[in-house]
């Protein structure tokens, strides 16, 4: 069950990030959000091991 919840959370966060990127276009926000998503994906993969 935890795997599904983590995947759902990541998808929701990716959607929120995409919405924010549409509103504000600076590269910094995009870079930071990409790093956050990468960290979340890594964390979710580590929790599955």
Descriptive overview:
By secondary structure, the chain is an all-alpha fold. It has one domain. It has two helices and no strands. α1 runs antiparallel to α2. The longest helix has 22 residues, at 2-23. The two termini are 14 Å apart. The relative contact order is 0.18.
List keywords for this structure.
49 residues; mainly alpha; 2 helices; 0% strand
Topology at a glance:
Elements: H1 2-23, H2 27-48
Helix pairs in contact: 1-2
The tally of structural domains comes to: 1
In the predicted model, the low-confidence regions spanning at least 5 consecutive residues are: none
Mind telling me the C-alpha Rg?
12 Å
Strand element count: 0
Subunit organisation of the chains: single chain
Instruction: Identify the overall geometry.
Output: elongated
Percentage of residues in strands: under 5%
Run of helices and strands: HH
Helix content: over 70%
* Mean pLDDT across every amino acid position: 78
Number of H- or I-type helical stretches: 2
Short description:
The chain contains two helices and no strands. It has 49 residues and is mostly helical.
